Amino acid sequence: MSREVRYRRSSAEGTAQPPSDMVQYVSPHPGLEGPGATFASVATALGAHGDIGKKVLSTLGVSELVAGEWYPLQLLLDVLKGVAQATGDHTLLGIGKAIVDHAVWPAMPPTMVDALQLIDVAYHMNHRLDGEVMFDPATGVMREGIGHYRCHPEKHQIIMVCDTPYPSELDRGILLGTARRAASRGVRPRVDVVLDESRPSRKRGADSCTYRVTW
After folding, report:
1. Which residue ranges are recorded for the region named Disordered (predicted)?
2. How far apart are CA 28 and CA 214, in angstroms?
3. How far is CA 119 from CA 52, 63, 85, 114, 163, in A?
4. pLDDT in tens, 145-192
């Protein structure tokens, strides 16, 4: 039996809500911010083509993103959109995998299910709303407003439902990067994360994407 990741949502937000209307590349709130370390993930994924990221920043009127600083989420989404338009959606997969290495994480738990459950906590730890980090490890309070990574373990796979403003392929990369990191801690190393095309998808205008994680 896997350990349940425990947290509680801010009392101001009430109980858990169903997925909100999330659109790819559109911040759901002007007060949302993300970390400058995100751009380090972009640069890692672009490799020798890193100048593309710099050109995208330039078109947005930004010289650079500094790790440790916070930036409007919409700016970060615009950077990702510009990179995807210049290089293709496949780059987003690499960025997502790299984010796992650059983001702030709690200690990685020992099982695949625990690791994938923890993504939602890490996601909120790496975003701020109106200047306040969206998950407080000391109190376990999670603020609403940016969507979730919802984990549903099944017998031979794990179903992940993601309703974030990030592009679908980037979310798939985050899931794959996290699952592979968990796999390196004792699970069989072959991991696959596939978008379930039979379910609604943000690529087709839906509010969420569903992924199947197998190993």
Report:
1. 1-22
2. 31
3. 28, 30, 27, 9, 13
4. 999 999 999 988 999 999 999 999 999 999 999 998 887 765 556 889
Our measurement of the distance from residue 41's CA atom to the centroid of its chain's CA atoms, rounded to an integer in Å, reads: 12
Q: CA 113, CA 153: separation in Å to the nearest integer?
A: 7
Cα 101–Cα 103–Cα 109 angle in degrees, nearest 5: 75
Rounded to the nearest 10 degrees, how much is the dihedral formed by the CA atoms of 147, 153, 158, 161?
-20
The pTM of this model reads: 0.86
Residues in the chain: 215
**What's the distance, Cα to Cα, between the start and end of the chain in Å?**
17
Beta strands in 90-148, from DSSP E residues, in sequence order: 128-129, 132-133, 135-136, 141-142
Q: What residue type is 46 in one-letter code?
A: L
C-alpha–C-alpha distance, residues 149 and 152, integer Å: 10
